[in-house]
Design brief:
The complex is a heterodimer of chains A (394) and B (658). Chain A has 394 residues and is mainly alpha-helical. Chain A has 19 helices and one strand. Chain A starts with a helix and ends with a strand. In chain B, helix 5 packs antiparallel against helix 7. Chain B is elongated. Classes of the chains: A mainly alpha (394), B alpha+beta (658).
Chain lengths: 394, 658
């Protein structure tokens, strides 16, 4: 009973903190929505709001280069009458994600930490908190990813398939998570069923969008086309933007294909290598996508980092946790400063921000590599930790 | 800026071509050249002889070299009634602070033609008189029904100078502005014609108009509409299967420098070629040494539906504002030098010493001749139409108290008229003498005419290079509610958020809401690299009120090759156009804006490609190794290593030999 209480406190606290911050600092939303770390053209609330405005004024939403949000999301928001309800919605969704993380923890057999801690880590994670306050639309994708994970653990493949399809509908790349997800579904029949249902859901969503968008397919290129081909070159924490700013014209399409392939390249290997620890494969795949996606935000990485408590049984095997966390911290703290130096003060140039985005990428990559190592090491020890054995790879 | 060298080269080539054309094709100019170089040809002053020479040249132009025709031509020369549809007028109007507006207007008409006739057939010919052949060919090949071209530079100080000449309908925004009505079967076809038109004009006027592309072209829906009083523009159509429509296209190049290269081709289009009539005053050095100048060309098609014939009308205007004392000083000392001590105008009521003093304001008595302003007198009338060249000085009525005086000077004697308008009848050199004892008093025919109905100013807000705001301030100084259409075309790299549009107003307009003043909005969002943002709205500004409309935008980052060579100079954003509909029609353009975008490091392409690739390789390599390699203890690893590889080979070799 006490544990249950703690869990509900955590969820309520999660919602409360977000509402409190949103209401106490009303200008914070605007500030964060302008920060490159939390908003990209694909997820910013400003652009979403422009979409709502255009929709309400009967102007073609996707016949232009400003709105890149999925049709149904824009439509959904146009139905919300007040600002407070939007704040409430965002806080509530973050609460649900926190709750789902707690529920997922319960399915971990070897978890050494109390379930509520996972929720508390999520609730207090400043990256997630600020991302929520900035009203970045990435939160919806995160919600459907965590729901998919929870329901697959519960064995409800219908909802799982639908959720991952919705996440994919919202921002393409989570579709790749279907691969580690299928690995978590037991029998082949159920696997096929999951695949079919998610494809079907995806189709329905697209058809619905087609209808809502006034029988026009132009939203496909404005949302997915722009995302996959990196149509909007805006500075962000990812590895794509500066590469394509400086790339020679003739090679741009080639390298866009290569980067997309690169993003896809580790999904199957990770799933195969950790097919017995399928949940961890799923989390590592999330991490890989967050690292390599064209428009990453700190909301993405905050979501990924919230899964790290799941790795508590293997914490002992981590080789350089201090180094990784310092690298990440370095990147996150310096990026707004370097961006400010470049854009506002003019006393630094674009290389400053580029350098910090590299540090950030290396930080995330070192966390990923370290977790992978720890999992391999755990697998080697077969559940009986022996930290003294010195292992190497050949 | 980008287009500078290209424009220069093109101009050079074009000047050569034009020169060739002028000497070869249209003999009118050469005949007048003869007059100029050979002043002893007294006979040519006679009207009959003038007609004679021109007509014969025109017949040569049509290349009829039959002797019978030659005989006919003698008959034609006797005909006294032949006159060419050409009119020219110069209006000189003093402006406050010793400024002077000189407004040159030229009107000409083409011969009638039958629309839809295939002119490439061998038995067809076209007859050209005063209307420029180059323009007509261009209009014909691109199915253009109306063409409007503006070259403007400088700042029109509306608060001091009052209304723009021609109510602003003949001057453009800073840079080049072009709009045209094109007949086509579809919008795409219209755009293709438009591209052709722009390229032809670019060649003809030595300007970078060829840089007009889809990312700069808009299709205005409320502004730039042809005047409703016209009988409607004709659609030549062709056969019925083609469903032709008229398309209005507009584009502007804000960073285009306007110079002599653009004036010379304009003068070459006139039948007088700048050799006689008022156009002889136009000299690049003087026109472009002014505070504000504007060249404009408007061509419209008029059709007579009874006779099924059409003709083109062309208006060319050259307007400029000259600061008289400055220009007179330039005449004395072409290279500026410090004023000598004796000529310094010191304010002796304030402290002074032998080195420095406070200056007095400019003298308010002025007397000058137009030839001092333009460097040469008017070389006779236009000698081509029966309408004499006309010069008017707008200084109000001649009465005793009028401090202004304007006289025509010909052959050393001065003449005055009641309305201060002078007809130049013959081939003498004319000059206009203007003097004033008090330049602060400017007589006008009616005060009402000078009221500026609206002041508009637009500026950029914000400080970062990643976003900013646009702020347009409308000030209505009149006692009427003003109804106007605001037109704005912004480049795609300014991502405008229409949802952020807000209204601020002064005390007089307190309580107004955005929906109260903006009645209808036409908005086309930009597409990257393809289409500009196109915003038009109708706005009503209550009497005596000042309103500000603000809007936020994001600035895009471009690819490094898309930046101009001087990337940190910024990008010129073209003027917004405000067309006032009520209470009277008037057009204003705001000044251009300079938008600075964030720039990447231009020296970095290779470094970035290499460094990013290295990081990607590092990440890929480490993860790949982890996933693919086998996990073993160090002892096992050593053992395996001792069995394979170079080290083990050496040990084995050692064992064998030692």
């Amino acid at each position: 009973m006490g544990a249950l209480n703690k869990e509900s406190y955590v969820v309520l606290g999660c919602i409360g903190i977000r509402l409190f911050v949103s209401l106490l600092f009303p200008s914070l939303q605007h500030q964060l929505d302008q920060a490159v770390e939390f908003s990209t053209p694909m997820t910013s609330f400003k652009s979403l709001y422009e979409g709502i405005y255009l929709l309400k004024n009967h102007i073609q939403v996707y016949d232009g280069g400003v709105v890149h949000h999925p049709v149904l999301l824009v439509w959904f928001f146009s139905q919300i009458p007040s600002e407070f309800l939007i704040d409430l919605l965002y806080a509530f969704i973050d609460g649900i994600i926190g709750y789902q993380l707690i529920q997922i923890t319960k399915y971990l057999r070897k978890c050494t930490i109390p379930c509520w801690v996972v929720g508390a880590v999520y609730a207090l994670n400043p990256l997630v908190l600020l991302s929520c306050v900035s009203r970045s639309s990435i939160i919806f994708t995160n919600l459907f990813i965590s729901s998919a994970l929870l329901y697959v653990l519960q064995g409800n493949i219908l909802i799982t398939a639908a959720c991952i399809a919705i996440a994919g509908y919202l921002s393409v790349y989570p579709t790749l998570l279907l691969i580690p997800l299928l690995n978590m579904v037991r029998t082949t029949n159920r696997k096929v069923l999951t695949l079919v249902i998610s494809l079907l859901t995806w189709q329905i969503l697209l058809l619905l969008s087609y209808n809502v968008n006034g029988h026009d397919w132009n939203f496909l290129s404005a949302t997915y086309g722009e995302l996959i081909t990196f149509g909007k070159v805006f500075p962000n924490l990812g590895l794509w933007w500066y590469f394509f700013v400086e790339m020679f014209d003739a090679f741009i399409p080639f390298f866009k294909a290569v980067f997309n392939l690169f993003l896809f390249s580790f999904i199957i290997p990770l799933t195969l290598r950790f097919h017995k620890q399928s949940l961890y494969a799923f989390v590592l795949c999330i991490g890989w996508i967050v690292l390599m996606k064209p428009y990453p935000t700190l909301g993405d990485s905050g979501f990924f980092l919230s899964f790290i408590p799941f790795f508590s049984p293997v914490f002992g095997y981590l080789r350089y946790p201090i180094f990784s966390s310092l690298l990440l911290l370095h990147g996150i703290l310096l990026s707004p400063i370097f961006y400010h130096l470049w854009i506002d003060l003019g006393s630094g140039n674009s290389n400053f921000f580029y350098a910090i985005s590299l540090v950030y990428a290396l930080g995330l990559a070192s966390i990923l590599a370290d977790l992978t190592w720890a999992l391999l090491r755990y697998e080697y020890d077969d559940g009986k930790p022996n930290y003294k054995t010195k292992l190497t790879q050949i | 800026m980008r287009s500078g060298p290209i424009a220069t080269i093109c101009c050079f080539i074009l000047n050569v071509v034009l020169f060739a054309q002028a000497t070869e094709l249209n003999v009118t100019s050469s005949s007048i050249n003869d007059h100029d170089t050979n002043p002893s040809l007294e006979l040519l002053v006679d009207t009959d002889d003038k007609t004679n020479s021109i007509t014969s040249n025109d017949i040569e132009d049509v290349r009829v070299d039959d002797i019978n025709e030659r005989e006919n031509f003698n008959v034609i020369t006797i005909n006294d009634d032949i006159q060419y549809p050409f009119n020219e007028k110069l209006l000189i109007r003093p402006l406050p602070n010793n400024n002077l507006l000189a407004s040159f207007a030229f009107e000409m008409e083409s011969e009638t033609f039958i629309p839809g006739h295939d002119e490439s057939r061998s038995d067809q010919y076209r007859h050209f008189t005063v209307f420029p052949k180059a323009i007509e060919a261009m209009l014909g090949s691109t199915s253009t029904r109306q063409l409007h071209l503006r070259f403007t530079r400088g700042f029109w100080d509306a608060e001091s100078w009052g209304r723009l000449p021609h109510d602003g309908f003949k001057s453009g925004g800073s840079g080049v502005e072009l709009w045209a009505i094109i007949e086509a079967g579809s919008q795409k076809e219209a755009f293709d014609q438009w591209k052709t038109l722009a390229n032809s004009l670019s060649g003809l006027f030595c300007a970078s108009i060829n840089f007009i592309e889809s990312s700069r072209t808009t299709y205005p829906v409320k502004s730039f509409q042809p005047k409703s009083t016209e009988e409607g523009l004709p659609i030549f159509g062709g056969d019925e299967t083609k469903n032709n429509k008229l398309y209005l296209l507009r584009a502007s190049l804000a960073n285009e420098p306007i110079c002599t290269e653009n004036l010379t081709p304009l003068l070459k289009l006139l039948p007088t070629r700048g050799k006689s009539g008022i156009s002889s005053l136009l000299d690049g050095h003087k026109v472009f040494d002014s505070m504000w100048h504007s060249l404009s060309i408007d061509v419209t098609t008029h059709c007579d539906f009874n006779t099924q014939t059409c003709k083109y009308d062309m208006d060319a205007e050259v307007d400029m504002v000259i600061h008289v004392p400055y220009t007179l000083a330039r005449n004395e000392h072409p290279i500026p030098r410090p004023t000598p001590n004796s000529e310094l105008r010191c304010d002796l009521t304030k402290p002074y010493d032998i080195y420095q003093c406070f200056p007095l304001p400019e003298s308010n008595s002025l007397s000058f001749e137009v030839s001092e302003i333009f460097g040469k007198p008017i070389r006779g009338s236009n000698l081509i139409s029966n309408n004499p060249s006309k010069v008017c000085v707008d200084i109000g009525d001649n009465h005793e108290n009028n401090s202004w005086e304007a006289l025509l000077k010909v052959n050393g004697s001065h003449f005055g008229t009641d309305d201060n308008c002078f007809d130049l009848e013959n081939k003498d050199d004319y000059d206009i003498y203007i003097s004033s004892s008090n330049t602060n008093e400017i007589g006008r025919h009616s005060e009402k005419e000078e009221d500026v109905p609206l002041y508009v100013s637009r500026s950029l807000t914000g400080y970062g290079q990643d976003r900013g705001g646009l702020r347009t301030v409308f000030t209505n100084p009149t006692n009427d509610t003003i109804r106007a259409v605001y037109f704005e075309s912004l480049p795609w790299f300014m991502r405008l958020y229409l949802s952020t549009m807000k209204l601020e107003s002064d005390a007089a307009g307190a309580g107004l809401d955005l929906h109260d003043v903006i009645t209808s909005v036409h908005y086309v969002t930009a597409i990257d690299h393809k289409r500009p943002t196109h915003l038009e709205y109708t706005i009503e500004i209550p009497a005596g009120t000042s309103l500000a409309i603000t809007c936020q935008f994001d600035k895009a980052l471009l690819q490094f090759a898309e930046y101009p060579p001087d990337a940190n100079h910024g990008f010129e954003i073209e003027s917004a156009v405000v067309t006032i509909l009520k209470p009277w029609s008037y057009q204003i353009r705001t000044s251009t804006l300079l938008l600075s975008l964030s720039t990447p490091d231009f020296s970095m392409p290779y470094n970035v490609i290499i460094i990013t690739s290295t990081v990607l390789g590092l990440i890929y390599g480490s993860l790949y190794n982890l996933l693919v390699k086998k996990l073993v203890t160090i002892e096992e690893a050593d053992e395996i290593a001792s069995q394979v590889g170079l080290k083990s080979l050496i040990t084995r070799l050692k064992k064998k030999f030692i």
